[in-house]
Amino acid sequence: MSRVALVTGGSRGIGAAISTALKKAGYSVAATYAGNDDKARAFTDETGIKTYKWNVADYDACVDGIHQVEGDLGPVEVLVNNAGITRDAPFHKMTPEQWKEVMDTNLSGVFNMTHPVWPGMRERKFGRIITISSINGQKGQFAQTNYAAAKAGDIGFTKALAQEGARAGITVNAICPGYINTEMMSTIPEKVMNEVILPQIPVGRLGEADEIARAVVFLASDDAGFITGSTLTANGGQYMA
Ligand code: CAA
């Protein structure tokens, strides 16, 4: 029987590439999405990957949603915490709502999704928790105090939980993508992208979502069993942590 992998924010952007790559690698994949029904339906039609709608910022919704996925596909053995949002603003203009929305999704969302799958992984003595953090959680970023704090928090979460999972056969790792060619980049003004961001990337291009997906497939595999608590950077040399 194939292992079950659950990917949050798994129908668009980096998440869609991860869901597809895991399916291709033989996993039985479920993908969550928060809002865009049309895109999710189109993704399911195209890939055959089942999508489920709930908000990772809502703990009870995560418990119920995971219950439904496990009823449909079986116990979740690989969890990919990919769902994330930006609400960029210079700090002097950032509202409490912008701070809270990003913390609730990008940091608390990781707790909300991991907590319900953890007891089953401990019992079965196998699990993979892979959280998509960000280069901006490592180096900080103009206009992203909220996002950088949440993504740095994801790395701390990963290092702490890896210690708890180690004896139970559960690995817990983070991946820090750099700037990847997805819809999220469309919020960045063209001038900032061309004059500020691109010149900082030594390989001279944005990354592709597939380049992150391949790292996820590796960390999910049995071959990666000795890798836990690690932070894998994939950023074209932009920041060498
Ligand atoms: N680095 C340095 N300077 C930046 C900057 C950046 N990334 N982004 C904006 N600035 C500068 C602008 O060039 C502008 O400078 P000038 O006034 O000299 O022209 C100034 O900041 C804008 O200041 P404002 O107070 O007018 O800002 P605003 O209220 O209009 O907000 C903004 C604009 C939200 C900051 C917008 O410029 C923006 O979105 N910038 C991009 C921020 C960014 O890089 N976010 C990362 C997104 S990618 C991501 O999050 C995925 C990941 O994990 C890698």
Automatic annotation (TrEMBL):
Gene3D superfamilies: NAD(P)-binding Rossmann-like Domain (3.40.50.720). It comes from Brevirhabdus pacifica. PROSITE patterns: ADH_SHORT. The keyword Oxidoreductase applies. One of its GO terms (cellular component) is cytoplasm. Residues 3-178 form the Ketoreductase domain. Belongs to the short-chain dehydrogenases/reductases (SDR) family. GO terms for molecular function: acetoacetyl-CoA reductase activity. GO terms for biological process: monocarboxylic acid metabolic process; poly-hydroxybutyrate biosynthetic process. Keywords: Oxidoreductase. It comes from the Bacteria. This is Beta-ketoacyl-ACP reductase. Signal peptide: none annotated. Pfam families: adh_short_C2.
